[in-house]
């Protein structure tokens, strides 16, 4: 049985060849090895969630009734998720261009990968899989306050696309929107993917999904003296490059979800004021699909 192993799934390759971004979750195609991969990933990281994760994440795990022994059905996830925050997980065949992804968040939809990493590479995957998306991201979506942060971020992306369309010179428009995309990607990386938060009782906890889905890094990011941890500073975050293929040496701390929401609002103000028009170079590179997704975005009233 071919299964739904990341980079080795004929179902996914066929969907991509047909130009299908949004797909069904063909649950019957998961192999026993795929299921065993889920079981191993879940069993070994659960104790680390209990030690390091934001309390809202643990509430989300319980509210979703995630099965430790089987890959979740997205339809079941959504039955628990939608009444809590209005969000739903929506299966996709692969990479979602930046504006499309952010606009999905605005509409309380989370593009969700349905493949799962190979059982021989439990510790690192260069692209998302269902464990990262469902066990790393989705539990946080059960918290309405956090969900509202994602929606607000999607609204900022919409504003950025609209802002770019008002620039008359085409070359300048491309240059500026590329810089803005870079800044938004950095913001998302250092918060939603790799964010730390103060605990009310002292110390730090993890709310970023890239950390929450990594057995090694969730402990490393809190315990290791090699990690630089600084209070969130917007001007630093949007100018700070990052690399995806190793543990993160630099992380930022927010005080609360209210604090995070206010920083997303400030990000929009900074776009409006032109403060993201000329950011420092470096990662992430903005690919052509991401750029086109913003330049061609439909942002008219009522859309």
CATH class category name: Mainly Alpha
Q: Per CATH, which architecture?
A: Orthogonal Bundle
Intertermini distance? 43 Å
The total beta strand count reads 6
Biggest pleated sheet: 4 strands, mixed
The percent range for strand residues is 5-15%
CATH topology label = Phenylalanine Hydroxylase
Radius of gyration: 19 Å
Describe the structure.
With 303 residues, this protein is α/β, with parallel strands linked by helices. It has a single domain, classed as Phenylalanine Hydroxylase (Orthogonal Bundle). The protein is built from 13 helices and six strands. The protein has helices at 10-17, 32-52, 55-64, 74-85, 98-106, 130-141, 144-165, 170-193, 209-212, 217-223, 234-237, 257-272, 288-295; strands at 88-92, 109-113, 196-198, 204-206, 228-231, 250-254. The protein has a four-stranded mixed beta sheet. Helix 5 links the parallel strand 1 (88-92) and strand 2.
